Amino acid sequence: MSYLRMSLPAAIILATLVSCTEASMFNSQPKFILKAENSKAFHNSSLVKTINIQSGDISECLKHCLQNCRCQSFQICENKKCQQCSSRKEENSSLLHDKDGCVYATYETPHLTENLQNFNGQCSSMRCSRNENCCQESGLCPDYKICKPVNVLSKPWKRFRCACPDGFRGIGCKKPITSCLGYARGSRKSGIYKLVNSEGSLYEAYCHFDSDGTWTLVQSYSFTNGSHNSKFQSLRKSLIENHPVSENALTWNGYRLSKPRMKSIKNGSSFVQFTCNYEKNLAINKSDYAQIQLQNVKSSSGKLVDILELNGETPYLTLGDRCGKIGENVLNYCSFRLIQSSTVALHVLFNHGNDQCALKSSQLCYWNHQFFGSYVFISECFHAVHRCAQNAKSTTQLWFGMRTPSFV
Q1: Residue 332 CA to its chain's centroid (Å)
Q2: pTM of the complete model
Q3: Which residues are CB-neighbours of 371 under 8 A, at least 6 positions away?
Q4: Angle at 193 (CA atoms; ends 323, 207), nearest 5 degrees
Q5: In this predicted model, what pLDDT tens digit does every residue of 143-159 receive, in sequence order?
Q6: How far apart are CA 346 and CA 364, in angstroms?
Q7: CA 139, 197, 199, 255 torsion: positive or negative?
Q8: CATH class of 1-163
Q9: 8 A C-beta contact, residue 205 and residue 229
Q10: Could you give the residue range(s) of every CATH 3.50.4.10 domain in the chain?
């Protein structure tokens, strides 16, 4: 395809354009390069505004496009109609079709750097080049969505995007995000996110994202605060009871969500996870951990039970592949029970007599082999192997979430 470079403050008559034309603007310091295609037009569904211009003046049409935050490309039809489009052929090529009497044009800004870094001011003339902070305008986004500036050098024609407010998702932004799974397709940086509780109010929770899965933190406490001798008794209570601790301000040595918040998070989850000392490296695989499918949590009679209502102990279960480790011991195929009662915190009891399990009784603290949360009998004995109980500041975390399908 041939190209023709033209200087453009002067008007260009459409009939003189070849099939694809490039044009530089602003004298010897080009800030915009136009690429125009003759006898082409975008579908009417993408048109956001039509302005009458002088005969074939492509520079005037470009000026109007730059002043309209919705305009990403434009076309001139019948030599006088400047039609602004809300998309570009690079992203919606199926909308570009043959149409006699029209020229479709896109623009690029190869020298635009500083302007994209500055969203403080508004520009409304060719000299200013364009509106920099489109989100200062009103009415750009539909109901329930908010405007967010876009600052991407590779796509400078995109000046804003309509996004759902924190805590909501979906086409109409009406679907509340009740766990970190609602953010799994967006930013996957672990940290604090907004969730919606059962009453429709926003609150903050900690989310962990990695290639293995997505997890929402519901409880964390130190060995000292969770031990039998601790005065911090709320953290030793079972999940059956509603005992929130610092739920609006994450503190790794003493934190617990209310039961209603836990329930809304669990309802969208398929796994429960225990970790140790997560806050020291913000990684699951560097911690002791155990991941258990919620569908396997059953009562002693064999009936499926809500883990928040478990009162007693489950039958022996078997950890699956890549579902846990303690110290350097991978827990594949180790058998265990979950135990919780009205007076005992949820924890894991391993069967150290299982020959397939790498964790042996010789590695346990005295005779006890309880891990991930219950430190009733080892309150005065730090565990050499288990990272949750190596010293007074060791921490234990409880999460609800979902493993990536390839890891299930």
Answers
A1: 30
A2: 0.69
A3: 274, 288, 290, 326, 347, 348, 349, 350, 386, 388
A4: 10
A5: 778 888 877 777 778 88
A6: 19
A7: negative
A8: alpha beta
A9: no
A10: 1-163
